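Write out this protein's structure.
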Amino acid sequence: MDWNLQQISKLLEVVFENAHEPMVVTDQNGKILLMNRSYREFLGVQDVIGRPVTEVIENTRMHIVGQRGVPEIASIQQIKGQSMIAHRIPIIDDGKVIAVLGTVLFQDVKELASLAAMVEQLKDELSYYKKELQRRLGATYRFDQIVSYSAKMRELKNFSQKVAKSDSTVLITGESGTGKELFAHAIHAESKRKMGPFIRVNCAAIPDSLLESELFGYEEGAFTGAARRGKKGKFELAHRGTILLDEIGDMPLPLQAKLLRVLQEKEVERVGAVRATPIDVRVIASTNQDLLALIREGKFRADLYYRLNVVSLSIPPLRERLEDLPELVSNLLKQLAESTGIVVKAIDDEVWNVLRSYSWPGNVRELRNLLERALHLLDDDVLRKEHIWLPVVAEAVSVPSLPGPVKALKETVEAAEREALLQAFMQANGNKQEAARLLQISKSSFYAKWEKYGLPES
């Protein structure tokens, strides 16, 4: 509908009259021109038009603002024994004060105190959720948590702490279970990006067909089953933080080319997108493979290798840092006590002879698994030689000769499959990729079955 001047005037009158906040309008001398219902009911008055505001509202300063033309914002005013928060704003036309608008935000300062308390509670909740998000997306380990009594580890840790201060791309190499991820966490935690996210991607655990969309994201309708609004990839999630590309040697060659472009251009292009998205991400890559050998075999791009290998960290295997064994064992037993509830108070001397004589192909991860198995063999709180089980090559599983109750075929197959996964994992000394090779299945199938049977992460 088209509004005429009379209708607009009526609308303004109705809005003013029914406003929730108490409102009053005076002329420049303090004579009341308007006062809405909320203010009249609060003061307990009715016919006030034309009266001096000083006779109606105690401690008012409306007339003073009208004379000075200077607004007073959020002033405390005592009315009827209550402390109120009031605004007094001069209405100026052609350089002259023609009226003054007075509003009350809180009819009692207690309301303001209540609101302030609510704001403080919301700030506390926001701070909690920020910390929780930081805990989940941030680094879990710090340099002071990495055992380094041996000369090699001390030197490596000192160098890594210097590297952490820069934004250089880092390539971490080392055998399976040496602690490559711990160093990646610690580098992020000591960098200028420590308040940003720390995103880890296991390039071996994600099927090749899904890895591109996981890393770079996708737009709506990019493929069948794509989320309605698209999805950010790991690189976008790591913006202003750090991304760890674990097991980088397993990345397919076509994706290696796209990763190289991301590193060069500092931008990602989602699957199905028409334009790239700028990113600010520090890249840390890790692998237990010989990337130079993969380059010679045509399985890894040389240009990507040199782009990743700006700073190289080689984590020594446990057999080359046996001086760290006592502290490592102590730390691992403390961790395991929290998860198993089993506490070791003493370690027999023969245990150390056994541990030092072993080659530790699975390194610290294997040591942790060995200690966890040993805890479940304890009769008291002393760890002895007989509790230490060192792996041997698994023998073929024989079929039981004694008859027993017949189980459903599916249950029997699943039990055998679960046992095969565990045996391959043990024979591969905790290297899941090697375990998949032993079972002659793809790495993605191995990870899927491992998760299906609820086997422990290690």
